[in-house]
Amino acid sequence: MPDSASSPAPIAFIGLGQMGLPMVRRLIAAGFTVRGADPAEAPRQALVEAGGLAFADAKEAAEGAGILITMLPNGRIVRDVLLGAGAAGALAKGALVIDMSSSAPTDTVSLAADLVPLGLPLIDAPVSGGVKRAIDGSLAIMAGGPAEAVERARPVLAAMGKSIFATGPIGSGHAMKALNNYVSAAGLVAACEALLVGGRFGLAPETIVDVLNASTGRNNSTEVKMKPFVISEAFNSGFSLALMAKDLRIAADLADHLELPLPQIQSVATLWEAAKCGLGAQADHTEIHRHLQALAASGPRG
Ligand code: NAD
Fold first, then answer.
1. What sequence ranges are listed for the domain 6-phosphogluconate dehydrogenase NADP-binding (predicted)?
2. Which CATH architecture has domain 175-297?
């Protein structure tokens, strides 16, 4: 292992998807050297065009890096990349690992413990704001882990996000992220239900959204999702329904784990899992409206 203190070691960035690629572009624009990895060829090509080095294999990308960032579908894949595929072993001595994916907090706690013998500190630093804010570098970032590791990551995180919160111990960022997405998903479902009920009563969809946005029913979905993605039927927000369903299952399981029998967090998770089964893994999360529309069309309960 090369020593990370002797030279400005590059950043390895694993997962160049909807979020990862624009985040990497921000890092390159801020002057960091990035070695990215993704099995898909198109984002690798885009990374090279942006001035980075691209690899199909995560272990190769990790070679000699002083910081490794993961932006992957879930914590199981993060573990596979680091320990199964051997990326952790290829890093520079004392390198910092930052999981920016939306992973399950309990998995993160056990991954941190498994990286200790390798001398690799881990922080969880998931993000909120979607593709738009990944592109303009204004993501909200919630960072869990030892304070000195979070401070070490801060200049790198600042290239990708505007609000960086130190949330507490390892896993707390991932817990916060799942809870944020629970609140966000519940708000989107409520807005879609209002559209369906109001629409059946004769209210115009744009009127419903305009009134909500000027009233106490306003939320992020009414402000930034209903018109461009739902009412337009474009359904192209860039955040998949399957990933949202995963986040909601993490939030509901966390409530279970903490022995909190709360009704809505469970029912929202179940609703999104049913939507994923009905609409398929490729559906955009705003297509939850189509799932609710189908339920509404199935007629009165009975
Ligand atoms: P995505 O599916 O677009 O990207 C994931 C990328 O990981 C893909 O390009 C895939 O090829 C790559 N990948 C999968 N396995 C790999 C491996 N073993 N090695 C290297 N690369 C691998 O997903 P996304 O929308 O970019 O989301 C990434 C993470 O960020 C998820 O945890 C998601 O929940 C979270 N997130 C997404 C959004 C959003 O708006 N899309 C917002 C906030 C957080």
1. 11-168
2. Orthogonal Bundle (1.10)
Per the structure block, which two tokens stand in for 120? Answer: 């690799």
In which residue are the tokens 């303009």 written? 136
Q: What is the pLDDT of residues 199-226, one digit of tens each?
A: 999 999 999 999 999 999 999 999 999 9
What pLDDT does residue 68 have?
98
C-alpha R_g of the chain: 20
The CATH homologous superfamily for domain 11-169 is NAD(P)-binding Rossmann-like Domain (3.40.50.720)
* Ligand 1 pocket, residues with Cβ under 6 angstroms: 14-20, 37-40, 43, 58, 71-74, 77, 81, 101-102, 127-128, 130-131, 238-239, 243, 247
Per-residue pLDDT, 301: 59
Q: What is the mean pLDDT of residues 91-98?
A: 98
Query: Is 162 a catalytic site residue?
Result: no
